[in-house]
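hey can u run this one w/ zinc ion bound, need the structure tokens asap thx
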Amino acid sequence: MIRTKGRACTGKRRHDTEEQAEEHRRRLIANGAVRLTAYRCRNQACRGWHVGHLPKPRH
Ligand SMILES: [Zn+2]
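ok here u go:
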């Protein structure tokens, strides 16, 4: 078993490509979700893309 450090990806939708993750993100935003981002998973066992919330915005 590989323990994930940092961002966990269990329970999240996994996408093989950035394009697929972006499409998923756009659909969520169209449904009213805000501040979502597609990011590359750092989990070596996953290596996919996920859609998650952005970290605290800095202005
Ligand atoms: Zn992952």
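The two ends are 39 Å apart (CA to CA). anyway lmk if its weird
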